[in-house]
Write a structure and sequence with these properties.
41% helix; DNA polymerase, domain 1; Rossmann fold; alpha/beta; 9 helices; globular; two-stranded antiparallel ribbon
């Protein structure tokens, strides 16, 4: 029986596509720019973990941004870089998230389990009025490695429950696989119509959004 729901933040609760609006008028092909930026951000977290190095998620995000700027062959001022980075603190929640979290919080303890830095995620949640839904923030910086390392999923043990009593809620298929491999109950919010990974781990619950999740569990 689930007692705790641990939520991925970026992509699952918040629409990273919000960054496109911030990039408009600053870069060519804002959608392609943001897509490359996000992909490189995730790639860097995986590469750093494999190299047994750690840098803050904020720094990783900035490095990925500067790479993307060079990839697109453009030049941005320090002020423009700062403005684009700041957009991560003002991402828009998916439309189902406020209601879904409110309903789920009536029956479960909610925490965030994220690659984001605690300060970064705390600011984002507060800026969008969602911080009150979460009892705690479990972050990669506490263990110095990024998801899908089992070390970050193991942080749920401090909540006083077994791993199987924690549902990891994510819209990232690789995150779902990582959580299941680490012994958590994987819950896939399939926002983007992507299949689950072929890694021998299958989500126990698959839903389209948090409203459906609140009806299912």
């Amino acid at each position: 029986m689930l007692k705790v729901l641990a939520f991925d933040v970026f992509g699952t609760l918040y629409d990273v596509g919000t960054l496109v609006s911030a990039a408009e008028g600053t870069v060519p092909d804002p959608e392609g720019f943001v897509r490359t930026w996000r992909a490189k951000q995730l790639e860097y977290t995986h590469l750093l973990s494999m190299m047994e190095r750690y840098e803050s998620f904020w720094k990783v995000t900035e490095r990925a941004l500067r790479y993307t700027v060079r990839r697109f062959g453009i030049t941005l001022s320090d002020e423009e870089i700062e403005r684009l980075m700041g957009a991560w603190l003002r991402l828009r929640p998916h439309g189902d998230v406020p209601e879904g979290l409110t309903r789920l919080a009536e029956r479960f303890e909610l925490v965030a389990l994220t690659n984001g830095d605690r300060e970064m995620v705390d600011a984002l949640l507060r800026n969008t009025g969602l911080r009150r839904s979460f009892a705690d923030l479990l972050t990669a910086e506490e263990v110095g490695v990024y998801k899908p390392s089992p070390k970050i999923y193991a942080l749920v043990e401090r909540l006083g429950v077994s791993r199987s009593e924690v549902g990891l809620v994510s819209s990232n298929p690789w995150d779902v696989a990582g959580a299941g491999a680490a012994g958590l109950t994987p819950i896939y919010v399939n926002r983007y119509g992507l299949p689950q990974e072929e890694l021998g781990v299958v989500a126990q619950i698959e839903v389209r959004d948090l409203r459906e999740l609140a009806e299912r569990i």
